[in-house]
């Protein structure tokens, strides 16, 4: 390849990389600076660790440690819902892949249809339903709707119908397994990659969901982090002048907000790291002659 | 151990396809029965009905004295070896072999004793800790065998267990499996499409075609006394040559040759199919002077050392009935039926060369005759 062509390619790639990386870099650096320095100093300069510690102190102190509580709430909602999703979705996908029962195609296509309905579109009817069940304002009002995750069912279905040789299940049956044993002892252990994938997608979707908890939860102490962040946003004088700003007890400015946002990403990053190791492992190798 | 019995068994799939049609077959206690036939003949379906992996549409399957039609595979006390081996990839070799025993909740010591015993018989001891993906094809196959024998089941069901191995290993495993079965004395139903496996392994061989049983017999009988042209053509390699012939004046007329056939007086003036095994042909210069002759043109000569396969054309017409076309199709040779050559298995002393016109002698006592419309053997020897 000619150097000029190579150079052009590099330039294009670099331009796009910078375009997307710049905001991330800015966000990472923001908590290290004082609020006024954010607008006066160079956008990509590092402030000081002292400022970072100060930002954490302010954030932590906000409304009696409520930030930590929000993170805890988010973990509780997302993990509970994901546990239900896995317990239901993986067997459901298995059943759809290997079961031969009336209505199988109907269930499969409904799963697909429901999968493409945006979650926000269902918030109002879900709200009415939760209201009728007197669940509004309780953790279940978030966990139950979160646990409904047709994409997970579909992923499990695709995995089982393409990656698990039906001969293995026949072997398990002949070896004396009941249908339940065949699932638990053969199909489930082989589904580690898909369990990891469903866990990841479900957790991230639940973690990032904003609209549903905003609608069904009334008390800010119950908020998950995403709703909490918006609460925080409205306490920041730069975004909400009614808050007044300096001199008041609330010390939430833009650096604190940036830190809160950054910390909210950490659990998702950890879940990603944990699940991606299981994702890449090809478990079915050697089962049957390739 | 037990006998296995198919009593008027049929299988029709939901879409109306018939796979097995009124199969009657009794596999004796301790017998090695081979089900053989071309793809789609219903042999695997029949086996899976014994295993309980396929619902039985009609008739009765018995294992021992027990009717098993409505029993789940778990309750049939049979072990199966699959074509794909179907090893559990997440379990070690030891755990794969132990799997059925653990499911049956045998005591730990007993499980260990049996797995070690099977591993010793199958030379798997060095591999017990490995996962299936770290094994060669032959080793995987032996693990699959191990998983079957530890069960000490009433019957073994084997579904083309050697078809994924290379030719050399297949010959070895053929002998190993046969010996193992003889030693254990467990009733075995073995499905294959390979007639060499069928002939070398089976105490008896059941030939199936399009869901119907054609003939059940010991290998030699199947070879020497096939009941119809399909069985005759399926068993034997190279396949039997089948020609159009006409019975005239006590002789079968094939092209310009007349072969004396005193037995077929009833067919005087009618067409028949004439079957000749390759070994019934011989280079005329090496054969008895009394044997009748055909004139042939050598198209291809394949020297195999112990024998020479000579492909030659004659004035006689090669028969092309449905049965024969299906057989050719199964061999993946769609030209076979249309091709006008016969195959002879000559002595290595033959001097015939490609392109020559030669005299081919044939053994008059080794001719097979079939009814042209039905393919049924006539005047069996």
Describe this structure in words.
- The complex is a heterodimer of chains A (290) and B (381).
- Chain A contains 14 helices and no strands.
- Chain A is mostly helical.
- Chain A is globular and about 75 Å long.
- In chain B, strands 6-7-8-3-9-10 form a 6-stranded mixed beta sheet, sandwiched between helices.
- By secondary structure, chain B is α+β, with helices and mostly antiparallel strands.
- The mean pLDDT of chain B is 91.
Uncertain segments of chain A of ≥5 residues (pLDDT<50)?
282-290
Succession of helices and strands of chain A:
HHHHHHHHHHHHHH
Strand content of chain B: 25-35%
| Spatial shape of chain B | elongated
Write out key terms for the chains shown.
heterodimer, A: 290 residues, mainly alpha, MetI-like fold, 2 domains, disordered C terminus, B: 381 residues, six-stranded antiparallel β-sheet, 24% helix
Concise account of the structure shown:
The complex is a heterodimer of chains A (290) and B (381). Chain A is mainly alpha-helical.
Layout of helices and strands:
The complex is a heterodimer of chains A (290) and B (381).
Chain A: H1 3-29, H2 35-40, H3 49-61, H4 66-98, H5 104-116, H6 123-132, H7 140-147, H8 150-163, H9 166-174, H10 179-187, H11 192-208, H12 211-216, H13 225-233, H14 254-280
Chain B: E1 4-12, E2 18-27, E3 32-36, H1 43-51, E4 58-63, E5 66-67, E6 78-81, H2 93-103, H3 108-121, H4 137-149, E7 155-159, H5 167-184, E8 187-192, H6 195-201, E9 204-209, E10 212-217, H7 219-224, H8 229-234, E11 241-248, E12 251-254, E13 257-260, E14 271-276, E15 281-283, E16 293-303, E17 308-313, H9 322-330, E18 341-346, E19 357-362, E20 367-370, E21 377-378
Parallel strand pairs in B: 3-8, 3-9, 6-7, 7-8
Antiparallel strand pairs in B: 1-2, 1-4, 4-5, 9-10, 11-12, 11-14, 12-13, 14-20, 15-19, 16-17, 16-19, 17-18, 20-21
């Amino acid at each position: 390849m000619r150097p000029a062509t190579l150079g052009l390619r590099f330039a294009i790639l670099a331009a796009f990389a910078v375009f997307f990386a710049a905001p991330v870099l800015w966000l990472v650096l923001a908590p290290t600076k004082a609020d006024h320095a954010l607008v006066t100093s160079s956008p990509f300069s590092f402030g000081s660790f002292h400022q970072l510690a100060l930002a954490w102190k302010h954030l932590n102190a906000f409304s009696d440690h409520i930030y930590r509580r929000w993170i805890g709430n988010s973990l509780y909602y997302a993990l509970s819902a994901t546990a239900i999703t896995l317990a239901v979705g993986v067997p459901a996908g298995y059943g759809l892949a290997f079961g031969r029962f009336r209505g199988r195609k109907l269930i499969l296509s409904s799963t697909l249809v429901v999968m493409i309905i945006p979650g926000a579109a269902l918030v109002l009817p879900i709200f009415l339903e939760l209201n009728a069940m007197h669940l509004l304002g309780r953790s279940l009002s978030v966990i139950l709707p979160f646990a409904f995750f047709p994409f997970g069912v579909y992923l499990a279905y695709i995995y089982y119908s393409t990656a698990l040789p039906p001969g293995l299940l026949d072997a398990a049956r002949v070896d004396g397994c009941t249908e339940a044993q065949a699932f638990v002892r053969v199909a489930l252990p082989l589904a580690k990659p898909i369990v990891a994938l469903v866990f990841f997608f479900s957790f991230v979707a639940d973690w990032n969901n904003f609209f549903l908890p905003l609608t069904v939860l009334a008390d800010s102490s119950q908020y998950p982090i995403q709703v909490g962040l918006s609460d925080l946003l409205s306490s920041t004088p730069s975004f909400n002048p009614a808050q007044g700003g300096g001199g008041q007890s609330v010390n939430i400015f833009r650096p604190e907000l940036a830190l809160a946002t950054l910390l909210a990403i950490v659990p998702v990053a950890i879940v990603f790291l944990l699940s991606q190791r299981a994702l890449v492992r090809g478990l079915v190798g050697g089962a049957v002659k390739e | 151990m037990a006998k296995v019995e198919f009593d008027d068994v049929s299988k029709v799939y939901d879409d109306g396809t018939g796979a097995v049609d009124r199969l009657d077959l009794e596999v004796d206690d301790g017998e090695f029965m081979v089900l053989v036939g071309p793809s789609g003949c219903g042999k695997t379906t029949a086996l899976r009905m014994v295993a309980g992996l396929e619902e039985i549409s009609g008739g009765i399957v018995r294992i021992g004295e027990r009717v098993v039609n409505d029993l789940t595979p778990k309750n049939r006390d049979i072990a199966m070896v699959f074509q794909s081996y179907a090893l559990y990839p997440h379990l070690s070799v030891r755990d794969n072999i132990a799997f059925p025993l653990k499911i049956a909740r045998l005591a730990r010591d007993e499980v260990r004793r049996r797995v070690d015993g099977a591993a010793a018989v199958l030379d798997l001891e060095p591999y017990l800790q490995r996962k299936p993906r770290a094994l060669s094809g032959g080793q995987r196959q032996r693990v699959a065998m191990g998983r079957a024998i530890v069960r000490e089941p009433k019957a073994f069901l084997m579904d083309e267990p050697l078809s994924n191995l290379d030719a050399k290993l297949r010959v070895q495993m053929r002998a190993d499996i046969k010996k193992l079965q003889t030693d254990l004395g467990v009733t075995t139903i073995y499905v294959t499409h390979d007639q060499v496996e069928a002939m070398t392994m089976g105490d008896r061989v059941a030939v199936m075609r399009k869901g119907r049983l054609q003939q059940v017999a010991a290998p030699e009988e199947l070879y020497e006394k096939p009941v119809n042209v399909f069985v005759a053509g399926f068993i034997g390699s190279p396949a039997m040559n089948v020609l159009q012939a006409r019975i005239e004046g006590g002789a079968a007329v094939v092209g310009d040759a007349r072969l004396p056939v005193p037995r077929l007086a009833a067919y005087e003036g009618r067409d028949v199919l004439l079957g000749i095994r390759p070994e019934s042909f011989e280079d005329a210069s090496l054969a008895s002077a009394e044997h009748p002759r055909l004139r042939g043109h050598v198209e291809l000569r394949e020297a195999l050392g112990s024998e020479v396969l000579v492909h030659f054309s004659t004035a006689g017409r090669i028969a092309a009935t449905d049965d024969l076309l299906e057989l050719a199709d199964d061999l993946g040779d769609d030209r076979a039926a249309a091709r006008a050559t016969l195959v002879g298995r000559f002595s290595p002393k033959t001097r015939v060369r490609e392109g020559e016109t030669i005299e081919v002698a044939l053994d008059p006592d080794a001719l097979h005759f079939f009814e042209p419309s039905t393919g049924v053997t006539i005047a069996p020897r």
